[in-house]
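The freezer alarm interrupted the setup, so I double-checked each line after restarting. Inputs confirmed:
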Amino acid sequence: MKIDKKVSAAVIQRLPRYYRYLGDLLDNDIARISSKELSVRMGITASQIRQDLNNFGSFGQQGYGYNVATLYEEIGRILGLDRSYALILIGAGNFGQALAGYPYFAKRGYNFVALFDNDPEIIGKTVGGVMVMDVAQLPVYLQENHADIAVLTVPGHIAGQIAGALENSNIKGIWNFSGSDLHLRGGIIVENVRLTDSLMTLSYMINEDDILQRAMPM
Amino acid sequence: MKIDKKVSAAVIQRLPRYYRYLGDLLDNDIARISSKELSVRMGITASQIRQDLNNFGSFGQQGYGYNVATLYEEIGRILGLDRSYALILIGAGNFGQALAGYPYFAKRGYNFVALFDNDPEIIGKTVGGVMVMDVAQLPVYLQENHADIAVLTVPGHIAGQIAGALENSNIKGIWNFSGSDLHLRGGIIVENVRLTDSLMTLSYMINEDDILQRAMPM
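Predicted 3D structure, all chains:
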């Protein structure tokens, strides 16, 4: 079956969560689960779960529920986890090194194949078995090697310069931690991670009662 | 005006984005903007913007639009950025050090006042001017000092142990990078950051056409 419509961003963002919860169920030897039970655990409605999954085919059976192992595997496939990905990372400071050295990624098929930085003290260092190269070599590297995803862990004001080299490559996606919006020529998908936004959300929540009390029409 | 209803999570998550866009406008010396123009820049509808902001009072004027500086300041206040926060961080590995050493946080009033780790090679190290303490000292530290937010950058299987010490403290929020769901006794707000979910979303997007083509009713 060819499905023409694209799936909404909200659904896509919930997929890793399903995957995580199903993985936990498997770890706890739970072989099947009703959409009702799954909904209670995940804190979303059963009908939302059914709707979300219906985007990708028909899962589960009336009166039986979901086979956990099958659904886990299927969602993994939907997420593209049955493949492996070659990742390059640009910006091998503390944060970049933490990502490149995180063993879970390799377990899921995300392999860091090259790391770049502009700091002479970092260039030549080995992180997770991969040596950090001079970022000046990035354009040539991209011409001569295959990579699927570029992880951008450089400061925002440098991101624009790097983007040019990535546009002229076969990179399909950018995992962007730079805090800067990237304006790229079509085709490359950008996933922005904005840690500061998340921290600000937390400080709002901490103060919510107080903030709403102070809120006044101006 | 006392507003009783809580604001939806989706609205709250958009606030830092408004703040960021308005800050960029200010940097570019743009003094006022219509909700239409702002909506084009941000890629959300003008009516959504008006609805979001209406949660907190009445901003902008028919025919004039928004005063950028005023709205920026007001949203900053809503986000609680007119205060400062004492942050402690547990897990001062590469990732924790990257967060604790990031100067932007202090500029926004998020001050790391204490760092903890269990690794003898990390304990005693100074990051962003703060010395890393032994995590065994955490409960005593929390009894004797004030902290608003705990940043959890420990592996998931350790998060549960730390949570106990935090529950018995005056901590108001946890910025949780551990990948583990925290089940805390009431009151403490947890903001989870799941980097792996974000990477999985990116790999889905890269493969979307292909995935939808393969999707079959089972």
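Quick read of the result. Chain A touches chain B through 69 residues (CB under 8 Å).
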